[in-house]
Amino acid sequence: xxxxxxxxxxxxxxxxxxxxxxxxxxxxxxxxxxxxxxxxxxxxxxxxxxxxxxxxxxxxxxxxxxxxxxxxxxxxxxxxxxxxxxxxxxxxxxxxxxxxxxxxxxxxxxxxxxxxxxxxxxxxxxxxxxxxxxxxxxxxxxxxxxxxxxxxxxxxxxxxxxxxxxxxxxxxxxxxxxxxxxxxxxxxxxxxxxxxxxxxxxxxxxxxxxxxxxxxxxxxxxxxx
Amino acid sequence: xxxxxxxxxxxxxxxxxxxxxxxxxxxxxxxxxxxxxxxxxxxxxxxxxxxxxxxxxxxxxxxxxxxxxxxxxxxxxxxxxxxxxxxxxxxxxxxxxxxxxxxxxxxxxxxxxxxxxxxxxxxxxxxxxxxxxxxxxxxxxxxxxxxxxxxxxxxxxxxxxxxxxxxxxxxxxxxxxxxxxxxxxxxxxxxxxxxxxxxxxxxx
Lengths: 225, 204
Hints:
Chain A has helices spanning 4-14, 41-50, 150-160, 203-219; strands at residues 20-23, 33-36, 58-67, 70-86, 89-105, 108-117, 122-130, 139-141, 164-166. With 225 residues, chain A is α/β, with parallel strands linked by helices. Chain A has three domains: 4-66 and 109-166, NADH:ubiquinone oxidoreductase Nqo5 subunit (Beta Polymerase, domain 2, 2-Layer Sandwich), CATH 3.30.460.80; 70-104, no CATH class; 191-225. In chain A, the strands form three sheets. Chain A has a five-stranded mixed sheet, with helices on one face. In chain A, strands 4-5 form a two-stranded antiparallel sheet. Chain A has a two-stranded parallel sheet with strand order 8-9. The longest helix of chain A is centred in the C-terminal third of the chain and has 17 residues, at 203-219. Mean pLDDT of chain A is 87; it is low at 219-225. The mean pLDDT of chain B is 90. Chain B is built from six helices and five strands; from the N terminus they run H-H-H-E-H-E-H-E-H-E-E. Chain B is α/β, with parallel strands linked by helices and 204 residues long. In chain B, helix 4 (86-95) links the parallel strand 1 and strand 2 (101-105). In chain B, 29% of the residues lie in helices and 8% in strands. In chain B, the strands form two sheets. Chain B has a three-stranded parallel sheet. A two-stranded antiparallel sheet of chain B has the order 4-5. Chain A binds chain B through residues 175-177, 179-182, 184, 189, 191-192, 194-197, 201, 206, 209-210, 212-213, 216, 222-225, and chain B through 83-84, 111-112, 116-117, 119-120, 123, 183-187, 190-192, 194, 198-201, 203.
């Protein structure tokens, strides 16, 4: 198999208007990936499948990643004009103060696909697609028209992460039921409050169990509906 | 009114068989407990192994596994009960005719097991239906299921026909139908059945 950089060059040569970014993997596995843009993703996928050299005809895995919003605290030196009393006289003096500015970098959701070639016996190639943000712009193009095996896996990604795939012919929840409101694999998923019996409870489980106990003792006979 | 055991044996040697109606009734029921074909996950494989030639459960009376709940006496809940499957389990239990028993086989049916922090796992089927015998194990060996079966037979032997401690099927006041949970927005509604399950709060 060509290296990931060579595949990127091949894609850019063959598919006009394709925007492909190389995402290096610093770990020892060195499994670098390519990030595609949603606008050209389907054409790039078709090229990867149809090209005689690459021939990635098998999508083995599609999964989702949740990149949560990051709060970044930066220390910034700010020069301000401050009224201060200097030697008993009110003056306007310039003061340099170090301020910590907090800003929130919006997160996003990502779909990651692993491609293999059964005919050429090479792989895997990892391709990714990011959504714009985590709240309202969560659409990505579906790759089921290119590889049929994406069908159920994209339904699972929709169920667990919330990425809506445009062009998927049957986008419903797969593991949870249809009326379920949350997306369980997101980082900010809060599990429903359900007493979990643990013989040696500690940390979060112990805290929740104690809350249940306090609630019981406060209410008297427990009524659960 | 039970007869003295020694006297029973002596008379039995002479060809006179003495018993009580309760003993006879329970003896007939315990020796032909027919389970329902109900396997959910890996524990079901162990249950199937128990029905096969090596650990034959048919010698204890479970001659056939009935496919229909209407004809079954016992439901062996073997495997993880997901929140999507839980309403169907309760529905099937409601459809079983009294007297009916439930064995919770394996860690998942007792309390959610190794997957109890899962978003789709019901932490124990005893939240919705009354369970008679629990079998710990992941999965429990076929011999453990046989021991549970024998324990169930002993429990049936001890069931009274009249009086305070009589079982549910002889008590016209007792509740026979258990509410089926509905899938809600974040969890099943209700999260457990009232009167069937209370959280065992024992926090030090």
